[in-house]
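Postdoc handover notes: sequence design on the structure in folder B. Input tokens:
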């Protein structure tokens, strides 16, 4: 029997920097749409089988959704469920709600998101606004930090 973090059972996911890289760079996107979709889909899903392929499909299909306004333009087409092959209206509504929060707070790029998450007064406002979205837990808030490349240690 092995435990999750011993040599006989190495982590399933490693990035291009290897297993010794800091954990906060293991996942991250320079694409607002990817961050929104990843954060939305990750709850109770297998990352490699379910979430990652859908995020990659989104980036390929909608490269201009790297900004909030670009992601919004695509959302308005009603084709997100087709692009990410996701039928559940609940998760799609959550993606819409996260997008609205970013729009309301003037977050257009991943750099804007990092700035808001890194600045003390803005961080609280953003996290409170995101926490008001259904199914966004403290774990999801921390995950958005990771996806944006923000470190809080």
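Designed sequence:
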């Amino acid at each position: 029997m092995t435990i999750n973090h011993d040599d006989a059972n190495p982590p399933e996911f490693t990035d291009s920097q290897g297993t010794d890289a800091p954990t906060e760079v293991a996942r991250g996107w320079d694409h607002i749409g990817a961050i929104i979709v990843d954060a939305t889909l990750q709850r109770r899903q297998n990352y490699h089988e379910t979430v990652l392929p859908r995020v990659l499909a989104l980036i390929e299909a909608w490269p201009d959704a790297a900004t909030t306004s670009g992601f919004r333009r695509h959302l308005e087409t009603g084709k997100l469920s087709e692009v990410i092959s996701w039928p559940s209206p609940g998760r799609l509504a959550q993606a819409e709600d996260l997008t609205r929060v970013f729009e309301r707070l003037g977050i257009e790029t991943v750099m804007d998101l990092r700035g808001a998450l890194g600045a003390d007064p803005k961080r609280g406002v953003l996290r409170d606004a995101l926490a008001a979205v259904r199914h966004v837990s403290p774990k999801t808030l921390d995950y958005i930090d990771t996806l944006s490349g923000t470190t809080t240690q």
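Context for whoever picks this up: Residues 75 and 96 are 8 Å apart (CA to CA). Don't rerun without checking with the PI first.
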